[in-house]
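RECORD TYPE: inverse folding
INPUT: structure tokens
STRUCTURE:
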């Protein structure tokens, strides 16, 4: 069974088990009788649901179901967010902007691009001089700066620089990335710390060791390498990827919980895949691709609910009855990214799987 087929299976499970037409969004967990679970609006989870749909669109060369769901989700999110897209969290807005930018590039729908640009205008107001610069995490906590806000903002700015008239955004991408690298990357290893000044004392949260933070640094560095051709960015991405491998390569990617943490592994594998593309093009080894393949093989055999087709927070054991949207999306991302690597001839499917 190909990675393409596995990705299709995971996407079908997402639609079958979690899509809620009454709200034009996904339920945040299942079981969710009559949508009763949706007491919290997880804005940034829905941004990643957009990304999953774009992945499906690309894999199927534009299957109409993915286009329909994108259109419905676009309206459902906006309605739930009070009729507009901006909110208080700069990291959440960056993820939403990235997702709709990808949707625009896939479908050509101008409203998706316009939403990404609207959000980017708001995100830039999060830059301030506290802690020497950087994008804040929250509009009501402007002095707290972290990798979750700055990494995706740098990715977004680099990608926006490719749009007509967007060349000036590259300076933003370089500035944001430069702040992140200087302040939240361990100079000895390349491992990315979570944030600084959370308690107003300038301290760095070095004990918060999340897969998410490694993913956003890798993604930002790869996008800047693509935008500038400067190999130093690719070296940064490779160094952080190898720090992540040193942390989790032997034991397997961790269970980071079924709340926001359910998405963390998915973010890492999405941007690890982007690095694999560039490293293999440059003649690099297959270690990272093997890591992704091994993780996916284990997840498929050990962690897929055979009745519902869902994945939970652990990629090494079956999920509980309750499965959150965040956790299943990470499984979707891993399989969709392996499907891309498969199409490009960079991974194979073992005969025994």
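DESIGNED SEQUENCE:
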């Amino acid at each position: 069974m190909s990675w393409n087929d596995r990705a299709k299976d995971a996407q079908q499970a997402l639609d079958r088990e979690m899509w809620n037409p009454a709200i034009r969004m996904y339920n945040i967990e299942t079981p969710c009788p009559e949508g009763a679970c949706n007491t919290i609006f997880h804005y940034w989870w829905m941004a990643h649901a957009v990304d999953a749909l774009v992945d499906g669109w690309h894999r199927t060369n534009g299957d109409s179901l993915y286009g329909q769901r994108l259109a419905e989700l676009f309206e459902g999110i906006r309605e739930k967010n009070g009729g507009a897209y901006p909110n208080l969290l700069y990291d959440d807005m960056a993820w939403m902007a990235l997702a709709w930018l990808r949707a625009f590039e896939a479908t050509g729908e101008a409203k998706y691009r316009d939403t990404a640009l609207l959000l980017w205008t708001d995100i830039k107001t999060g830059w301030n001089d506290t802690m020497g610069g950087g994008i804040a995490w929250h509009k009501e906590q402007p002095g707290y700066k972290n990798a979750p806000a700055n990494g995706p903002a740098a990715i977004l700015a680099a990608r926006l620089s490719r749009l007509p008239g967007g060349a000036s955004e590259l300076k933003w991408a370089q500035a944001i990335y430069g702040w992140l690298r200087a302040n939240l990357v361990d100079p000895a290893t390349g491992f990315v710390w979570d944030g600084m000044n959370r308690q107003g004392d300038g301290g760095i949260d070095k004990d918060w060791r999340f897969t998410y933070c490694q993913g956003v640094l890798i993604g930002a560095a790869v996008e800047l390498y693509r935008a500038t051709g400067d190999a130093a960015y690719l070296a940064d991405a490779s160094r952080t990827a190898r720090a992540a491998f040193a942390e989790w390569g032997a034991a397997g990617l961790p269970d980071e919980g079924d709340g926001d943490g359910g998405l963390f592994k998915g973010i890492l594998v999405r941007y690890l895949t982007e690095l694999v593309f560039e490293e293999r093009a440059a003649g690099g080894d297959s270690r990272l691709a093997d890591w992704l393949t091994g993780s996916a093989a284990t997840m498929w055999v050990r962690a897929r609910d055979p009745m519902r087709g869902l994945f939970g927070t652990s990629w090494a054991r079956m999920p509980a009855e309750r499965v959150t949207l965040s956790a299943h999306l990470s499984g979707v991302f891993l399989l969709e990214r392996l499907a891309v690597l498969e199409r490009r001839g960079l991974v194979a499917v073992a005969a025994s799987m």
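NOTES: The longest strand covers residues 141-146.
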